[in-house]
Amino acid sequence: MSDLHQPPARARRRRRPGIYLLSPAGAIIEPERLERARANLRKLGFNCTLDRTATAREQRFAGTDAQRLAAFERALRHPADIVMATRGGYGISRLLPRLDFRALADSGKRFVGHSDFTAFQLALLAKTGAVSWAGPMASYDFGGEAVDELTADLFVEALSGQLEILSFESPDSDPVDARGVLWGGNLALVTALVGTPYLPKIRGGILFLEDVNESAYRIERMLLQLLHAGILDKQKAIVLGRFTEMPSSPLDQGYDLTAVIAWLRGQVRVPIVTGLPFGHVPLKATLPVGAKVGIATQDGMAYLVLQEHHHHDHDDPHHQHDIASA
Amino acid sequence: MSDLHQPPARARRRRRPGIYLLSPAGAIIEPERLERARANLRKLGFNCTLDRTATAREQRFAGTDAQRLAAFERALRHPADIVMATRGGYGISRLLPRLDFRALADSGKRFVGHSDFTAFQLALLAKTGAVSWAGPMASYDFGGEAVDELTADLFVEALSGQLEILSFESPDSDPVDARGVLWGGNLALVTALVGTPYLPKIRGGILFLEDVNESAYRIERMLLQLLHAGILDKQKAIVLGRFTEMPSSPLDQGYDLTAVIAWLRGQVRVPIVTGLPFGHVPLKATLPVGAKVGIATQDGMAYLVLQEHHHHDHDDPHHQHDIASA
Question: What are phi and psi of B106, to 5 degrees?
């Protein structure tokens, strides 16, 4: 964890940025996807290094708890500026009490992932205030034959600080124009941290949520936990990403995500914004968890303001990315 | 909510005890099960009254939220001493902020149910300290052609105060001999209350848990939330009921409930007791949630002491129920 391997930011910008790939949760089932991910990320201009236990296996996990913890330590010693999870699954929750969040934050590395990785990102934010990136993962997003071009663009632009405004179609959103700390991620993981020291205590935040493979009643029950825990009412906006592969039942009789959102609107006065391109889908934005952002809606569109103008380099034009509906 | 309908306990014992059946959560799909339940409960010596919206339907719920809330109010006005849920599903979480727990506790009624009903029981305990009964539900446990005899016996004995000790096979339990407040129920519902005002703050308790249709990793993640929230370590014992219909995956590679329990033993010093006859299975005990109980293990058996000797009527013999393994 010496600083010797960490060249100053200015010098590093002249070289290909490095990505260190580690597997903090579920085992890698198709190692060939990681090879494709390295090739695809190389085409995007990144040098990838695969952690030596990234394809390890212990039961359903990518190696023992000790191996997965050691991977984070190796990532900190490696010169790569970006640390990306290969995939989610389940496993970070186990590691939370043993991760050195201070060292992770002090490294200045940019940690990227989603799904189970939400637990890492929120714990890092709770313990240190450090920003990390909710975004693509190597196997899931870059391991296929084709890579979603917009996902790749958004990843490159977000991490290089070029992306100022992410705009997306959001036809049934509440009116909002607010600024606050962006936080959230996978709803099940956000909810699983309630009551623990790993959930950041954020007032006036912009809470974004997505999930996969959760039925409508489970989504509602999780939102209710956030509501009854006093979390939802403290936010300036709730931004819903994609909820996919929702199991339904003949018992539902019209009860679905739309019904849940309608019901939620009756419970909270916080504006609800829909349509965020984020979740277990090929098209996903790369979002700074823990950074102050703006959110506004107008004429069926939503605008997530990631950078104020004065932050960008003067040779980058004002950069806005429109996301058409899928 | 007048006391006029509530005859003194001594007089009431001479008559058939009454059970008021209401549907606080999921819609009743097979109303004929409720008819069978009433007949079966009558054979056991109970007069059953079915709430007038017990078979109502609104989406997946047994009526609107307002209808389900009104059912609790009607139950309080009815002379029946016992209030039993017809079934679980999902729906009580929505009602929690609008239930009058003080009036419910002051009624002296004995509320019985499990699964989703856990949310009601724990909220009642958190808000008032009142004891309720984790036990059978009309449709699930009494609505079939045959009723599990032991479940019926345990229900009758527990509610009449005759059951002193519930003993069950528990071959791989940790040594324990402790007393504390019995609490818990369905793991997903216990966990969904963490961080909310509806989870009782119990130190030195005996926490019992069961669940259905949750994969091993979800069970572990829920236990981890209880662990990281500081709840598990404060208990004198964790008593595991049945975990059934657990979805498994080829990815698990040996990771299962046994692995989860082994892992949990490495995380907490609290004794873990297995084999409690409770869960989404025909054989279930009726357990006083919020009452002080004893728990002990010896020679592969566990003993849950529900009543001290001086509590029973002198004409009842010392009453112990042995549960052989299924």
Answer: -65, -20
> Per the domain annotation, does A3 fall within a domain?
no
* Boundary-marking domain end, from A159, A190, A210: A159
Full residue range of the structural domain in which residue A111 is found: 9-159
Same domain, A272 and A198: yes
**Looking at residue A151, what is its pLDDT?**
98
Question: Which residues are CB-contacts of A147 (< 8 A; sequence separation ≥ 6)?
Answer: A40, A141
Cβ distance A83 to A19 under 8 Å?
A: yes
For chain A, list residues whose CB is within 8 angstroms of any CB belonging to chain B: 26-27, 29, 57, 59-61, 89-90, 93-94, 96-97, 191-198, 217, 220-222, 224-225, 228-229, 231, 249, 251-255, 259, 263
For testing the chain B interface, which of A217, A226, A252, A260 should be mutated: the one with the most B CBs within 10 Å?
A217
In a domain, B298, yes or no: yes
In tens, the pLDDT along A261-303 reads 999 999 999 999 999 999 999 999 999 999 999 999 999 999 9
Q: How many domains does chain B have?
A: 2
Instruction: Count how many Cα atoms sit within 13 Å of the Cα of residue B243 in the half-sphere of its side chain.
Output: 22
Query: For the packed helices A216-228 and A257-267, what is the interaxial angle rounded to 10 degrees?
Result: 20
One domain, residues B174 and B225: yes
Residue B24 sits in the same domain as residue B132: yes
ipTM of predicted complex? 0.92
Domain-ending residue, one of B97, B127, B159: B159
The answer to pTM > 0.90 is: yes
